[in-house]
UniProtKB/TrEMBL annotation:
One Pfam family linked to the record: MerR
Keywords recorded for this protein, A-Z: DNA-binding
SMART domains reported in the protein's UniProt record: HTH_MERR
CDD domains: HTH_MerR-like
Protein name per UniProt: HTH merR-type domain-containing protein
InterPro entries: DNA-bd_dom_put_sf, MerR-type_HTH_dom, MerR_fam
Species this protein is from: Streptosporangium pseudovulgare
Positions of the HTH merR-type domain: 5-72
Length: 260
């Protein structure tokens, strides 16, 4: 009658009977022999081992590593715990990063864009661009940052400077209006000419177009960014194509689909 049943042992240790049996299956705690009545009795040695296993598991030690830890000598045990602590520290840092990301998500744009880009989106709103137009810019910038990360900071710098130019802002607003035009509207060609002429006359603004060119798969990445949200054959897509044609004719390198 020495010892307690599995139910009482589990209660004493603070785990479930199912957990105790799982520890047995993993070999973490040796299963006691049955007594004359057919019950397994857990003595102080088994209870101590259960407490040790439960404590290590609660600390985040993988179950597969608990057995060797419990069987190790003091020096090896201390070294192994040091490794576990480093792993836990890494996991904690990862969780903190995830938590911070969730907090940024609550702030909308800041989860996907740097503070500079968020500030620029605010400037667009202040300049009179509609919520839909600002949202389109946001999506395009998120895509640009992902596809051409090495050029994104410089791109933001070029946009910051360009937004100080009222002529450039007026052209961009006109381009946003053109999205509602028919693809064959003659005003599209006029607007494309005005935009291309402005870019050629202002090399700093031209870098907004030429700056986002990746070192690999440049044409594919450029096209994904330049035509994001625009249907093929739409007025906006035709306008972009006309501007690109005029810039290429002036000797400006603009990636073409199907080239690298």
């Amino acid at each position: 009658m020495n010892g307690v049943t599995i139910g009482r042992a589990a209660a004493f240790v603070g785990v479930t009977v199912k957990t105790v049996r799982h520890y047995h299956r993993l070999g973490l705690v040796k299963e006691p022999e049955r007594d004359g009545s057919g019950y397994r009795r857990y003595g102080s040695a088994e209870l101590l081992r259960l407490v040790q296993a439960r404590t290590l598991a609660a600390a985040g030690v993988p179950l597969a590593e608990i057995g060797p830890l419990l069987d190790a000598g003091p020096a090896l045990f201390a070294a192994a715990l040091g490794d576990v602590e480093r792993q836990l520290t890494g996991r904690i840092e990862e969780l903190i990063t995830r938590r911070d990301t969730l907090r940024r998500l609550a702030d909308g744009d800041r989860a996907l864009l740097p503070d500079r880009a968020v500030a620029l989106l605010g400037r667009l709103s202040g300049l009179g661009f509609s919520a839909d137009e600002v949202a389109a810019a946001r999506e395009g910038w998120v895509l640009a940052r992902a596809l051409v990360p090495e050029g994104f900071d410089d791109y933001l710098t070029h946009v910051e400077h360009a937004l100080d130019d009222t002529r450039f802002v007026a052209l961009i607003k006109r381009g946003a209006e053109a999205a509602a035009w028919e693809p064959d509207d003659p005003r599209i060609a006029e607007l494309a000419t005005a935009m291309a002429d402005h870019l050629l006359a202002n090399p700093a603004h031209l870098k907004i177009v030429t700056g986002l060119q990746a070192s690999t798969e440049a044409a594919t990445r450029y096209e994904l960014i330049a035509l994001h949200g625009e249907e093929r054959g739409s007025a906006a897509a035709r306008g972009v194509a006309l501007v690109e044609t005029k810039l290429r004719a002036a000797g400006i390198r603009i990636p073409r689909a199907g080239t690298h």
